[in-house]
Every structure is written in C-alpha cells, then in structure tokens.
Design brief:
Elements (H helix, E strand, L loop, with lengths): L1 E8 L3 E2 L12 E7 L8 H9 L4 E6 L3 E3 L2 E3 L3 E7 L4 E8 L6 H11 L5 E8 L6 H9 L7 E6 L11 E3 L2 E3 L2 E8 L3 E8 L3 E13 L2 E5 L2 E2 H9 L15 E4 L8 E3 L1 E5 L4 E4 L8 E6 L2 H18 L12 E7 H7 L4 H8 L7 E7 L1 E5 L6 E4 L3 E8 L1
Parallel strand pairs: 3-4, 9-10, 23-24
Antiparallel strand pairs: 1-2, 1-7, 3-7, 5-6, 5-24, 8-13, 9-13, 10-25, 11-12, 14-27, 15-16, 15-22, 16-17, 16-21, 18-19, 18-22, 20-21, 23-27, 25-26
Helix pairs in contact: 2-3, 5-7
C-alpha cells in the first residue's frame, strides 16, 4: 500500500506535485475541501486529469484535516494505491431528506457483495437524514461489513455542501466506495466526550429528524432559553449544546443530535438524524480536555481493531478522521489538539487525513452496524497484510 498526501491552498497551489504515477483501478483518491470549490473547481479538475483510472471520492467540509493540522479554504488530498484491495464506486441522487433511507439502499444494491470488507460513504450535509441513510445502506449489506463516512460540511453556514460525483462537485448526491479483499484490515473508533446537563424532557412531537415539541412546548422557543446571547447566531451556535436522545429512562445508550436548521414559523429544529417521538432528550456540554481525550480513545480503539495497537512495531496505515463541526466550535484555536492526539496513536509513516462534518457515519463501538453520530471524533483505519 502506497500513500501520498498533498494540500492545495489558494494562491499557493499544491504542497507537492500530484502523484499521477499512482493512478490505477486500485487507487483511492480522497479529497476534502472548501465549499468554494462548487464555483471554482480548478483543483478538483486537476485531480480528475491526474487520476483518470482511480476512484475519486470527496466532499466539502467545515475544516480540512491534514496530518495534525486543520485548515480552511483549501483542499486536503490523500492518494492511496492498494496492493491487493479492489475498489468499486457507487453513487445515487439525494435531493430531499425523505429519500435518505432509499438512497442508502440504492448504494448498497450497487455494490457487489463478494469479498466486500468495508464501505466508505459521503453525503450532502443539508438535505439529508443521516440516521435513515445509514440504516438504508447498513441493513442491505452483508453482516460484518464496516460502514463509515460522513455528511459534507459548509463551515457553520449550513447552506450549500457538495460531494464529488464524476469529478464534479454535486450538491444533491451520495457516494460510496466498496473495498474488497481478504488482505484488507479495517479498524474503527467513535467517541464523543460530551455529558448531559439540565432537565430531561420528552419529545412529544416530531417527524423523522424534525423536532417540534418538547414536553408539549414549542421546541425552538424552549431551546432558545438556554442559548442566551448566542440566540442570534443560530443555527451555528446550537452546535455548542447538542441534544442527547435515548429511547427511554431505562439506562439505554443515548445518541447525540445536532441541529442542521431552524424554522421560526413552525418553531421547529431540523437535526442531522432522527429524534423519535416519545424519546427522552437532554442538553449536553463538554470541554476541550474531554474532546481531546475522546479523540485519543477513538484512535486507540481503531488501532487495536486493525491489529496495530503497538504503534512502534506496526506498519503504516491510512487513517481517515471525520469529526464534528460542533467540536471545532467548542475547541476554537485548540482544535488541532484533537487531531494531534490521533496522529500520536498512529505508527510511523502513516497518513492521516479527513474533515469536519455535519454528521459522522460509523459503527457503534462493539459492532459493525453503522449509525449516524453527531459531536464525535470517528476514525477509520485501513491497512493491508
């Protein structure tokens, strides 16, 4: 497995020439960049020209991860030529959130089953229900296939996102790459580092990923009571205080949900994933120290699963991080501490890239079935025997 990482920055160009010699059907090119590439796709066009035979995957971000650094307004590209792993790419339109589960099922149907070990998927980050999308693809794939990926970002604007489709940025698309072969090893980790606070409230009215009422009160008005001076910065400011949602007051594991948009007229909030009626909701908060610690633990779990827990005696790996924009808003200038924590867990010579997202798709720890997460650091590690 050969891996090369390069960056493109406006007015600076590529940090190193594109390694076009690695082009081939077993080469995966991952590109995570700025929303502005919708209207100025020059660097994406360069990728298409340099890698005509390769599988190209990419999306817009709320920050591009390159090794232990986080940037904006550029593009982070990692080119991986596998020795024995085979690749198969699939895509499908997604124009409205109500079609999310169907889109996931269509992707699964387009991926050959024999030898499938893992799927990495990317989706537009605005008109989507990530829970339904993950359910659609996960329920239609063979047991044991690791599904991971994320929802494209747009900084904290929540207006326009893109996914790379046929070499062009597409605002209404979901893509996936299937990775095949017995020689492929895949590890994953997913942790949040958030804690609940304040009263528990019952979701008394919702529809999929749209929340209308908590305890019989308009959800948006109730939520605004907690934001104080941050109300004027909605929906972006809501990322600092996500919701913990669990099925009942019985100790069941919660999922974290963050806001994609608000509707003042309906007094509703649209989340990246399902907020089921009858579930228990509670506000959450965190600190930079907790977020960094959770990133370190996520990386440790991923490396252990891929059989590389001893970083000094393990071979290089490809590590892809998908972290939440909400974490970046909380950490601010200290954001790079969590990506540095991931790098510190990787063997020498490894490559680390990724992006800040509007939702993370990853297996819950302890199983391979994927789900939609928010406010987590997720890490997928690829290696070959």
């Amino acid at each position: 497995m050969q891996t090369v990482h390069t960056l493109h920055r406006p007015k600076q160009g590529w940090s190193q020439p594109l390694p076009s010699s690695l082009d081939g059907p077993n080469t995966l090119v991952l590109a995570f960049g700025a929303r502005a590439l919708i209207d100025a796709p020059g660097p994406l066009d360069a990728l298409v020209a340099a890698f005509p035979q390769s599988v190209l995957m990419g999306c817009s971000s709320a920050g591009e991860i390159a090794a232990g650094e986080v940037g904006d307004d550029g593009i982070s590209v990692v080119v991986t030529r596998f020795d024995s792993t085979r690749l198969h790419r699939a895509s499908t339109p997604l124009t409205e959130a109500g079609d999310s589960e169907g889109a996931g099922a269509r992707l699964a149907a387009a991926l050959p089953r024999e030898g499938l070990r893992a799927v990495f998927m990317l989706a537009n980050g605005v008109a989507v229900n990530g829970t339904a999308l993950a359910r659609g693809i996960g329920s239609a794939l063979p047991e044991g296939v690791v599904v991971s990926g994320g929802l494209a970002g747009d900084g904290s604007l929540f207006q326009r996102t893109w996914v790379l489709e046929q070499g062009k940025p597409n605002e209404h698309c979901v893509t996936a790459v299937g990775l095949y072969g017995e020689g492929l090893q895949v590890g994953h980790g997913c942790l949040g580092g958030w804690t609940e606070f304040g009263p528990e409230r019952v979701i008394t009215r919702s529809d999929g990923n749209v929340l209308y009422e908590l305890d019989g009160q308009p959800a948006l008005a109730l939520y605004k009571n907690y934001l104080g001076d941050l109300v004027g910065q909605l929906p972006g400011s809501a990322l600092r205080f996500p919701l913990s949602v669990r099925a009942a007051r019985d100790g069941s594991a919660p999922v974290v949900r963050t806001i994609l948009g608000i509707d003042e007229a309906a007094q509703s909030m649209t989340f990246a994933g399902d907020v089921p009626q009858g579930a228990i909701a509670q506000l959450m908060r965190t600190s930079t120290e907790r977020l960094v610690a959770s990133a370190d633990q996520a990386a440790d779990r991923a490396m252990t699963e891929v059989g590389a827990s001893d970083r000094l005696n393990s071979g290089p790996v490809l590590a892809v991080s998908v972290s939440c924009i909400g974490r970046r808003l909380v950490m601010g200038e200290r954001t790079e501490e969590e990506v540095e924590a991931v790098v510190d867990r990787l063997p020498a010579g490894s490559t680390h890239a990724g992006f800040y997202s509007y939702g993370e798709i990853a297996p819950s720890n302890g199983c391979t079935l994927a789900d939609l997460h928010n406010q987590t650091m997720t890490l997928t590690v690829f290696a070959e025997n």
